[in-house]
């Protein structure tokens, strides 16, 4: 069998009321506007389907590749590509929201997937915080606090900085706050229930809230947010060759942080792996890559050699 190729992808961008310009100014993407919220790097969703950049599959959409060349994905089962990899630039606070799990989404959202997601922080202005979890002890207390608009009392905030990582299970109240850029691995779903939007007006209107659905899916009580943040202990400068750390393993995905400093060789066996270069530059089997490169290592690819100084987030689907 001929050696399979790495599959590079051209991202899709979204413009959002809370977005900024760092995906252009800091990542060098050629996209206009000062409201660029998201870069969908590895995506095969109806609202954003990334195109293969060059190679034998060049020009195909990732959804087509998934449907027509399942061998590249280890003949995985499933009617849709399971994950979605994004960069997010929050200039302003995002609304406070929650996502349903698979079961609730299948029943109430036309068979959509639910959404677990996780965040690797790429940059954060000093004093940055994320909203993760809430303070209600019972369902009754949660409903009362939402109905009475006691959101300051309800939500929990955790301080975060560059290199921190956090898993957001479905049912977790959460929000990215302004001044943060992060990379997200999530289930391929865009079902979001907005709990509170700080009473802001956007173009003269408040955005729709989804109070009942939010109440239905929020987990009570919430786990301790402080314990959920994984801090980075290591600097890439301390690494010779490669350092690989497991960030999370949940029923839907596994996410690892890799530091390459010098040369590193390894393989992924039968798994296909979604690779996001979040910092640095170097080569992967001779392909030049840099901050903002997205590619898939297909199933059965074999050994891979990485060189340079690279911070990569590697995500696998289950
Ligand atoms: Zn979310």
Q: What is the topology?
A:
Elements: E1 7-10, E2 12-20, H1 22-25, E3 36-42, E4 44-45, E5 48-49, E6 51-52, H2 62-68, E7 83-90, E8 96-98, H3 102-108, E9 117-124, E10 129-134, H4 139-147, H5 151-154, E11 155-159, E12 165-168, E13 174-176, E14 180-187, E15 193-196, H6 211-217, H7 225-228, E16 229-230, E17 241-249, E18 253-267, E19 273-284, E20 287-290, E21 294-297, E22 303-317
Antiparallel strand pairs: 1-6, 1-21, 2-3, 3-7, 4-5, 7-14, 8-15, 9-12, 9-14, 10-11, 10-13, 12-16, 17-18, 18-22, 19-20, 19-21, 19-22
The protein binds zinc ion.
Please report the distance between the alpha carbons of the first and last residues: 26 Å
* Hetero groups: zinc ion
Summarize model confidence as the mean pLDDT. Answer: 96
CATH superfamily of the largest domain: Jelly Rolls
Mass-distribution shape = globular
Q: Helix fraction?
A: 10-25%
- Portion of residues in beta strands equals 35-45%
Question: How many helices?
Answer: 7
Helices and strands, in order, run as EEHEEEEHEEHEEHHEEEEEHHEEEEEEE
SS elements, strand count? 22
Radius of gyration, in angstroms, nearest whole number: 20 Å
Parts with pLDDT < 50 across at least 5 consecutive residues: none
Which structural class best describes the helix and strand composition?
A: mainly beta
Q: From the coordinates shown, what is the CATH architecture of the largest domain?
A: Sandwich
Note the main sheet: 8 strands, antiparallel
Indicate the CATH class of the largest domain: Mainly Beta
